[in-house]
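Thread amino acids onto this structure.
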C-alpha cells in the first residue's frame, strides 16, 4: 500500500477536478476550494485552472460581506474569503482584489472588542494578520494583536486550555475549533511580530488538544471532550496548525530560543490526522478541498 505522500497526490488531483467540475456546473464553491485551485495554478501553471479561477475571483470581489448579526456565527465565511483574496493579490495585479480585501478587513474589525466567542474571533484575527503585509501593518498588526490577547487572555488557564466563551473564563473548556483557531492566529502573530511567547502559547494549546481530544487509536481529534464526533474540516485545520508547528521547530532561531515540547513530532501528528480522515474525503466532494490544502502543506514539509 503506498504511503501518504503518494496517496496525497491522488487526493489533491481528485479534489482539484471536483472543484473544477463544480465551477463548470455553476455550483457555489467555498473560498478554500478556490484557494486550492489558486495554489495548484501557482505550482503547475495549468491553463484550465487559470480559466476557471478568473471568473470565480471576479465573483468573489462582487460578493457582499456577511450581515453584522451573523459575523460571529459564520466563522469560516468572511475570514476565508479574505485569506483567498490576499493570496490572489500576490499573483494578480487586479486592484479589485486588494480593494475587496481591505473592505473585508474593515468589516471583520467591527466585532473587535465585542466578540465573546473564541473560535470566530480568533479566525477573523488570524485572517487580518495574514493580510497585514498588504494593508497598513503599522496599524493593523498592533490592533489585531491587542484583540487576540484580549480573546486568549480572558479564557486561558495554564495547562487547562481555553474557555469556549471569554465571558465565562472559568466555565467549560473550549472545543477543537477554539484551540486550533487560536493556535493558528497566535502562530501568525508570531510571524508578524517575532514575539516568542505567541508561538510557545500556540504550541501549548495544540499540546492541550493532543492530550484531551485525540483518539489514541487513529490520531484524529474529537470536537470537544466527551464527544464521539471527529469533524472533518476541523481535523484538516488541526493538521494545518500541526504542520506550521513542525515547520517552526525546524527553524534554528526558534529551536534555540523556545522551550520545546518534549518528543514533539508535529509532522507525524499531522500525518496521522490526515490518514485517519482520508477514507471520507470523497464523500464530501468539492467541499473537501480543505483536505487537499492540508495535504499540500504537509507535503511541503517533506
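Threaded sequence (302 positions):
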Amino acid at each position: 500500500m503506498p504511503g501518504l505522500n503518494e496517496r496525497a497526490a491522488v487526493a489533491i488531483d481528485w479534489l482539484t477536478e471536483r472543484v473544477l467540475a463544480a465551477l463548470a456546473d455553476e455550483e457555489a464553491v467555498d473560498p478554500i476550494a478556490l484557494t486550492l485551485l489558486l495554489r495548484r495554478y501557482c505550482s503547475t501553471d495549468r491553463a484550465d485552472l487559470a480559466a476557471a479561477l478568473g471568473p470565480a475571483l471576479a465573483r468573489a470581489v462582487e460578493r457582499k460581506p456577511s450581515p453584522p448579526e451573523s459575523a460571529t456565527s459564520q466563522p469560516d465565511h468572511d475570514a476565508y474569503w479574505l485569506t483567498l483574496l490576499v493570496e490572489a493579490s500576490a499573483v494578480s495585479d487586479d486592484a479589485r482584489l486588494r480593494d475587496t480585501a481591505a473592505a473585508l478587513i474593515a468589516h471583520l474589525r467591527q466585532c473587535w472588542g465585542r466578540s465573546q466567542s473564541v473560535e470566530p474571533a480568533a479566525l477573523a484575527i488570524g485572517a487580518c494578520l495574514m493580510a497585514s503585509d498588504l494593508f497598513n501593518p503599522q496599524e493593523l498588526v498592533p490592533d489585531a494583536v491587542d484583540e487576540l490577547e484580549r480573546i486568549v487572555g480572558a479564557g486561558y488557564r495554564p495547562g487547562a486550555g481555553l474557555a469556549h466563551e471569554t465571558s465565562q473564563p472559568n466555565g467549560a473548556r473550549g472545543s477543537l475549533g477554539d484551540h486550533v483557531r487560536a493556535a493558528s492566529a497566535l502562530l501568525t502573530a508570531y510571524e508578524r511580530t517575532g514575539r516568542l511567547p505567541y508561538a510557545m502559547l500556540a504550541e501549548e494549546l495544540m499540546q492541550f488538544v493532543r492530550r484531551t481530544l485525540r483518539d489514541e487509536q487513529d490520531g484524529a481529534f474529537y470536537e470537544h471532550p466527551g464527544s464521539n464526533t471527529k469533524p472533518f474540516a476541523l481535523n484538516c485545520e488541526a493538521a494545518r496548525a500541526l504542520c506550521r508547528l513542525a515547520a517552526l521547530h525546524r527553524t534554528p532561531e526558534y529551536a534555540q530560543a523556545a522551550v520545546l515540547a518534549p518528543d514533539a513530532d508535529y509532522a507525524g501528528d499531522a500525518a496521522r490526522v490526515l490518514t485517519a480522515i482520508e477514507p471520507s474525503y470523497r464523500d464530501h466532494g468539492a467541499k473537501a478541498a480543505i483536505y487537499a490544502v492540508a495535504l499540500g502543506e504537509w507535503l511541503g514539509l517533506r
